[in-house]
């Protein structure tokens, strides 16, 4: 059973910031190229800082179990495969509602059904099915959009896809930016595109996927992050999960530093979502430490931190079972869907 100190990790932090249900959306700010002036990234310094995240801090035993339970509440449980079916999406939603077995929760001193994932993320075709399967759970449906994953369909079709997903009940939209705007330094075009996406989302929150593995440099990552936030993105997200290189601690560090800069300039808190490659309990702890050290306790909550993942939950389950029983179980005992 978790001790009281470890359980405190799971509680909403006492702070001056409102509860997530009442948080203000990011309204964006007028485009100002001066915000990008002097944005340079020291790659070797970033690498040195990122390399300390898994070594300078140690989260063990009950504390580690509590951090992993918290991580589950921040997972965007995802299926984005060509062979997805309605039945698979429904199973995924059932897993999102009850991601851990009741006996494990009880052994950890938690009430059955007390943990659920942050969201379920699907293609537009399955939004209605997911909304229906999650009815009454409080778990939002996130839809990937704008020609995911490449983002190369015509702009008007991107807006129509967003609007269709919102009409079907998606509460969050994960858009992909046009990489060409970043690679050519056309920051005004990126801003205008993102503003259109933000408007099309209406009340739905928008996560801007930068596809960091495609935009080549950390300076590009920093500038694209800032422009998307200026244009109204509620979250910035590393990757689609389909690039050759997806989430890394290096690009994540750069992105959260830009979130910190935007917060200092505007007073608006922006969320962060690493996606692609965050598949083990050890790796998610490194991302949680990154958020805690760089942005603070509030960024361990699902309104400001999400992890795009499909297989991560199985490894977290295995680690929690080991914590309870002292034995590791086979992955096939912890199916996601």
UniProtKB/TrEMBL annotation:
Reactions the enzyme catalyzes? 2-deoxy-D-ribose 5-phosphate = D-glyceraldehyde 3-phosphate + acetaldehyde
Which InterPro entries does the record match to this protein? Aldolase_TIM, DeoC, DeoC/FbaB/LacD_aldolase
UniProt keyword list: Lyase, Schiff base
SMART domains in alphabetical order: DeoC
* The organism's place on the tree of life at top rank: Bacteria
Query: What processes does the entry annotate via GO biological process terms?
Result: carbohydrate catabolic process; deoxyribonucleotide catabolic process
Family annotation (Pfam families):
DeoC
Q: What is its EC number?
A: 4.1.2.4
Task: Please give the residue ranges the record annotates as the region Disordered.
Answer: 1-24
MF terms (GO), sorted A to Z: deoxyribose-phosphate aldolase activity
Cellular component terms, GO, for this chain's entry?
cytoplasm
Q: In which pathway does it act?
A: Carbohydrate degradation; 2-deoxy-D-ribose 1-phosphate degradation; D-glyceraldehyde 3-phosphate and acetaldehyde from 2-deoxy-alpha-D-ribose 1-phosphate: step 2/2
> Is Transcription regulation included in the keywords of this UniProt record?
no
Tell me which family the UniProt entry assigns to this protein: Belongs to the DeoC/FbaB aldolase family. DeoC type 2 subfamily.
Show the PANTHER family listed in the entry. DEOXYRIBOSE-PHOSPHATE ALDOLASE
What is the name of the protein in this document? Deoxyribose-phosphate aldolase
Q: Which organism is it from?
A: Caballeronia telluris
